[in-house]
Amino acid sequence: MGFELSIILAYAFGLILLYIVGWILLIPIKLIIKLIWNGVIGGAMLLLVNLIGGIFGITIVINPINALIAGFLGVPGVILLLILQYIL
Question: How far is CA 64 from each of CA 61, 69, 70, 74, 83, rounded to the nearest angstrom?
Fold first, then answer.
């Protein structure tokens, strides 16, 4: 009525496999959450620059390309857009 070694090894293999599959699925979820967070922060910064910068004459036109840059890069994307607007 004791446990056999093959059953214990099967349970151990199953737990290790479950851990590996969970770890593989967790990485894309972290990436998606990071992209969503960057998009929210980038959009808020774009809006903030347009609201506050409008007083000083600094605005960024919101179009799909600028929204994508600010969305993917976040705060550095908004800074990049400001620098590009100043240069161009």
Answer: 10, 9, 10, 15, 18
CB neighbours of residue 56 within 10 Å: 7
DSSP 33-47: HHHHHHHHHHHHHHH
What is the rounded distance in angstroms from the CA atom of residue 46 to the CA atom of residue 15? 46
Burial category of 46 from C-beta neighbours within 10 Å (exposed 0-12, middle 13-18, buried 19 and up): buried
Task: Retrieve residue 2's tokens.
Answer: 């004791």
Query: DSSP class of residue 3?
Result: P
Q: What distance in Å separates the CA atoms of residue 17 and residue 21, rounded to the nearest whole number?
A: 6
pTM of the predicted model as reported, rounded to 2 decimal places: 0.66
Average pLDDT over residues 13-36: 86
